[in-house]
Design a protein that fits this description.
Elements lengths: L1 H12 L6 H24 L6 H18 L23 H25 L3 H21 L4
């Protein structure tokens, strides 16, 4: 779960960076990687939550793929394809943590889209924000 908090902190700090858009895109790409790895690791552990985690993994993969098209994404990004899993014994706790990360990610990508000068960056941020919001919808309980 520490990795989730670390990614959230990077997302929160990104708008303050010298190149805010690039920092946001890099942190967002890592966030989608954490979401994807954690959802995939959680899929088979619960019959009740299988569909939520499976569809959330698909949305996270799509969000990550979309971000790879952003012109302002630093060129060294996107080379790492897996992350350590952030799965807890209690899958509802995992789902809550991942939903929270996805909500934060969606908000930051939406904000980055509003600031983006390049149409490609704007489109990538908008579309990836939509996928992050989808992950949040799938994993959030009672929000």
């Amino acid at each position: 779960m520490q990795e989730i908090e670390d990614i959230r902190a990077r997302l929160e700090a990104a708008p303050l960076a010298a190149d805010a858009l690039a920092a946001t895109l890099a942190a967002a790409l890592d966030a989608f990687g954490v979401l994807l790895a954690s959802c995939r690791d959680s899929e088979e552990r619960s019959v009740e939550l299988f569909a939520a985690f499976a569809f959330a993994a698909a949305a996270a993969a799509e969000g990550r793929h979309i971000l790879l098209t952003a012109p302002s994404l630093p060129s060294a990004q996107g080379l790492v394809t897996s992350h350590a899993a952030c799965v807890q014994a209690d899958l509802e706790v995992t789902a809550d943590a991942l939903a929270g990360l996805a909500g934060t990610l969606s908000r930051h990508l939406s904000s980055a889209a509003r600031r983006a000068q390049d149409p490609g960056d704007h489109a990538a941020c908008c579309d990836a924000a939509r996928e992050a919001a989808r992950v949040h919808e799938l994993l959030a309980r009672g929000d």
